[in-house]
Amino acid sequence: MEEALHCEGCGAEIQTEDKTKSGYVPKSALNNEHIICQRCFRLKHYNEVQDVEYTDDDYLRMINQVSNTDSLVVKVVDIFDFNGSFITGLQRLTGNNPIILIGNKVDLLPKSTNRNKLIHWMKKTASDFGLTVQDVFLVSAEKAQGFDQVEKEIEARRNDKDVYIVGCTNVGKSTFINQLIRRSSGVKDAITTSYFPGTTLGFIQIPLDRKSYMYDTPGVVNRRQLVHYVTDKDLKVITPKKEIKPKVYQLQDQQTLFFGGFGRFDFEKGMKQSFVCYFSNQLMIHRTKLEQADEFYQKHVGELLQPPSPETLEQLPELTKQTIKIPLKKTDIVIPGLGWITVPDGGVTISIHVPKGVNISLRPALI
């Protein structure tokens, strides 16, 4: 039996089958004297960090290594999929190390969003999930917004210690790290002149100074994320690319809104009022009568109710219903991975239908 090859950079076992998984190299690279995986190759030659997926068990085992270090942990989440992109149990896995929380994709929020409310909600929700964070920062890794403050904060809090960047797949963690690399000229020189000693399986070492490193940890696949059931084509429709434009619907009770075929909002009981929908500008929203909604969905999902495409429909969990009484105050109903609906006056009973496993939540309205 042939002995397994390991990447000289991050220590991952070399494989030639799947580009999205750790240790991938093209078959032609197997003849090289020094074999490094594509992820390490891109960092060494292009100063770019690439996200790869690990299984949950491997990931938890790797992140657990952080608990034995004296370091700073920077956790990146997607503002539009906070619950889905949150790694539960992180405090237990990272020990007593301080944690900074980064909310990515702030450029896609409507300008009128109350950012202080959002930061407060993120802190509170993290705490509800059992994670104590030192501070929360909002950035756009894509547009390089908010990085001056984040850089200063990381430098001030790390006290010459190492920094570990953690996050689920699809939160923009790699883009976040790449922005930090671009802003630091010293890092570029260090990367292009050395291989990285693969002391810690799966982590990529990026020198910060002569004594300390920033570690890119692989992205964990969180099964509560909607993105894992969706084709790339559908993902482009449900993921905002530009600032979200709110859509307002005047509804009587016993009316329903469909968000493509991914979600459904039933206004069960209450006075007529306007509901404000914050979703990707490309996602089609359809209104119908509640009594016809089940039949409407069965008849039109994958066609009029697009997306999902037929490929996504095959793997999408069935929609499950949750009925909620909204208190008498302005409230957001958040569907992780899709967006949110603002109930302006409250005092209504609504039902939300979302794919099984996706957990909706309520928060004080951000706008």
Automatic annotation (TrEMBL):
Domain CP-type G: 57-223
InterPro entries found in the cross-reference section: G_CP_dom, GTP-bd, GTP-bd_ribosome_bgen_YqeH, Mito_lipid_metab_GTPase, NOA1/YqeH-like_C, P-loop_NTPase
Highest taxon in the source lineage: Bacteria
Name of the protein this chain belongs to: CP-type G domain-containing protein
SUPFAM superfamilies: P-loop containing nucleoside triphosphate hydrolases (SSF52540)
PANTHER family: GENETIC INTERACTOR OF PROHIBITINS 3, MITOCHONDRIAL (PTHR46434)
UniProt-recorded Gene Ontology molecular function terms: GTP binding
Organism encoding this protein: Gracilibacillus kekensis
Lineage: Bacteria, Bacillati, Bacillota, Bacilli, Bacillales
PROSITE patterns in alphabetical order: G_CP
